[in-house]
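re the bet — no i am not wrong, look at it urself. input seq straight from the record:
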Amino acid sequence: MSSKSVDVLICGAGIAGISTAYHLAVERGIRDVLLVDERPPLSLTSDKSTECYRNWWPGPGDAMVSMMNRSIDILERLADESGNIFQLNRRGYLFATAEPARLETFRAHGEEAATLGAGPLRIHDGKSGGPAYQPASLEGYHHQPIGADLITDPALIREHFPYLSEATVGVIHARRAGWFSAQQLGMYMLERARAAGVRLRTGRVTGLDLRGDRIQGARIQDNGTEEVIATRQVVNAAGPFVDELAGMAGLELPVFSELHTKLSIQDHLGLFPREAPLLIWADPQRLPWKPEETQLLAEDPETHFLLETFPEGIHARAEGPLDSNVVLILWTYHTDPVQPTFPIPQDPYNPEIALRGMAALVPAFEAYFERPPRPFVDGGYYTKTQENRPLVGPLPIEGFWIIGALSGFGLMAGPACGELLSLHIAGEALPSYSDWFLLSRYQDPQYRRLLETWDRTGQL
């Protein structure tokens, strides 16, 4: 058993760990940093989402909007300096509804987001005056509106979004939003970090060494050989395994995990609009079945659930350049807490459910009901707190830090959360939103009372 020492040991080389390493080394000048992961960088959950970002978040408080605005600032700076190597765009998120009663909800959400710092709400109803609707650019992120556009004018909806269901009565387009390549962003930050002195090694953390309530080091196993790394700073960036790592220090975190899968198809019929924003159907729905199919499904206890009402939130976007035909579809209709296991379990009904659900949003997808394209399904776990806000900061063991519970927003929040944790570790001034993400918030009686009435988490 050999022994080495480092200033900071980061456990986990997903986007959270890489961002923390980048900010420590490149921005804070703390260069003796070791990233440890038993898997290749960014390969567990960081590349399993839609790779989207948004500053469109609910309260209470402006912490999520402020943190996401900061994260997007960092994304844009990195895109500028790298020649946009990770293909950042500003297509936006487009929520659509066929329920007139939901239009007031859209308006209320837009007004709330504006007060929290996401940008102004613009109304396009065909009656009131105001600025003209500005469509999103297909590429790039500069010179685009912020805030949101609420469109209830049927003619305007058909002009700009002719592919949506004719039942659509309104859309709200969140504008400081879009997507990028997670792999390219993560590798760019990792390369910058390694150039500043950060080291990456393969290994599994098997234990933490403590002296009283103080971190002294960690044990790392690789190919049957265990090595002791002496350090007074350990970062828990273990993604879906943050609670397991915390348990090595006798801690239990208030987190749980949900399985979220992503469907990728080759849209060989060209049914999905390549120029579209991220499309989200905001209404619950029943899947469309023929009468004979309905009868067969009803007779089988295993498939009867396919006739029930599914939740809102199916969303999809085009993947790749304009001449690609790949479409990504996500729809989480089961949100029961699960124990993370890899490889992830497969739901045999997911591809069929997703394709049929898409027809509520883009009716042209009905053409795939009889002969669906061969799907590729992957996914990961949203490890989250009950209110769906991250844990970033110190743990009750001195020298033990966390950047976790990043739920489904790890990619978009990673740059700002990595920066925030680096400021904690370096002892520098913290941003205004930092207290909202501390583990110690759950000891605050006022915060606990707030949790009792928390009604929106911002999760898609």
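see?? Residues 258 and 336 are 6 Å apart (CA to CA). told u. also The chain has two domains: 2-51+182-254+385-452, 93-177+257-380. so pay up
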